[in-house]
Specification:
two-stranded antiparallel sheet, mainly alpha, 6 strands, two-stranded antiparallel ribbon
Length: about 280
């Protein structure tokens, strides 16, 4: 869908639609909950987990007897649904995104600050695409509120991106491409609130600066896997791709003074500058 947004090639939209159709067969619907089964799976499941419906959860594996539902698989289906809704205005995709979003909020507790960065970043990317007044979950949270809540809680409480130097570090200095992609999608898409946009821009700028100053030798265009250095001489496609996500999303950021703690009426957000619930055999 990213390619379709750039090139507007209908063949790319067709591929995305086919992928969504397949993902739909692995995503729990209201009908599936009513019957306690999914046609693509060989087992039955309970209708709720910890009192919340399983509608919207996406299975991680296609194997008929694999019972695992992951936050990432659900977030990926959520974001694909959001892209397709943006491209087609078909409400079937909006409804699917709302179901997936509700699952991520009510079951996976994605706004709780202990979610994998990849899951949070993927969810952010989808949130950037949907109308601000779209709502999710048992608390009926709006997209606008979720954007602020998720960015704030992820960047200030998740130990992988709240180091004193402000650099994402998932281990060994390695960054996270989904998080910078999600933050970049928000920064370049939404119109407000202004303090949220400034906060995201400053955070992305930190990632950009560390890449071009300590993760590479000047003019080499070869980037280390570790965003805190040291630089490397050997080209590695994985490292390059990881760096590319941060460089592209931060390249056009307008840097402003660092946002301090604030409170706003939409969600009591305190912008400042600091794993992991997943369901296996849900019950």
């Amino acid at each position: 869908m990213r390619a379709y947004r750039v090139y507007q090639n209908s063949a790319m939209l067709d591929i995305a639609t086919q992928a969504w159709d397949y993902g739909r067969t692995l995503t729990i619907s209201d009908v599936n909950v009513a019957t306690g089964s999914v046609p693509s799976k060989s087992f039955n499941f309970t209708k709720t987990c910890s009192g919340s419906t399983l509608i919207g959860g996406t299975f991680w594996q296609t194997t008929a007897n694999d019972t695992t539902i992951f936050g990432l698989s659900t977030a990926l289906f959520f974001t694909l649904s959001a892209y397709l809704y943006q491209a087609t205005s078909d409400n079937i995709y909006l409804a699917a995104a709302q179901d997936s979003g509700a699952f991520l909020i009510d079951i996976m507790h994605i706004t709780g600050g202990i979610t994998r960065l990849t899951d949070a970043g993927t969810f952010m990317e989808g949130l950037a695409l949907l109308p601000s007044n779209t709502s999710f979950g048992e608390q009926n949270l709006s997209v606008e509120t979720l954007r602020s809540n998720l960015v704030n809680i992820t960047l200030t409480t998740n130990v992988l991106c709240n180091a004193a130097n402000g650099i994402i570090n998932t281990g060994g200095g390695v960054g996270d491409e989904a998080l910078v992609q999600g933050l970049g999608a928000l920064y370049h898409t939404i119109s407000g609130p202004a303090d949220l946009i400034t906060y995201i821009g400053n955070f992305l700028s930190v990632q950009y600066n560390t890449l071009v100053t300590v993760s590479t030798v000047s003019n080499s265009n070869i980037y280390a896997g570790s965003w805190i250095g040291p630089p490397v001489a050997q080209y590695d496609p994985t490292n390059q791709t990881l760096a590319l996500f941060a460089l592209v999303n931060a390249a056009q950021v307008s840097v402003n003074s660092q946002t301090n703690s604030t409170t706003n009426e939409s969600g009591g957000i305190a912008y400042q500058h600091n794993d992991v619930p997943e369901i296996q055999n849900p019950s």
